[in-house]
Amino acid sequence: MIDLKPCPFCGSAILKIYKTRTASRGTGAHSVYIKCQKCHARGPKVAIGIGDDPEKELTAAAGAWNNRI
Ligand SMILES: [Zn+2]
Q1: How many A from CA of 17 to the centre of ligand 1?
Q2: CA-CA distance, 58 to 69, in Å (whole number)?
């Protein structure tokens, strides 16, 4: 598992990864981000390319979240 830092706003460790689709229809490209389940603070969105595996998505989103703090 990836270590996620607690939310910088409320200190909660209840964090979830979300996926969004980008404007590029049909390519499978999308973005991922971490969102606090308590205060709904969001981490930076990270663009994910086609064919990247889920573990890479999690690592990218977690890195963006941890580096923001
Ligand atoms: Zn929070």
Answers
A1: 14
A2: 17
The tens digit of pLDDT for each residue in 41-62 reads: 999 999 888 777 878 888 999 9
User: So where are the chain's domains?
Assistant: 15-68
User: Distance from first CA to last CA of the chain, Å, rounded?
Assistant: 20
Q: Which helix (H) or strand (E) holds 8?
A: none
Count Cβ atoms below 10 Å from residue 19 Cβ, excluding itself: 12
Q: Are 68 and 15 in contact (CB under 8 A)?
A: no
- Per-residue b/e over 32-66, b at no fewer than 16 CB within 10 Å? bbbbbeeeebebebbebeeebeeeebbebbbbbbe
14 CA to middle of ligand 1, Å?
8
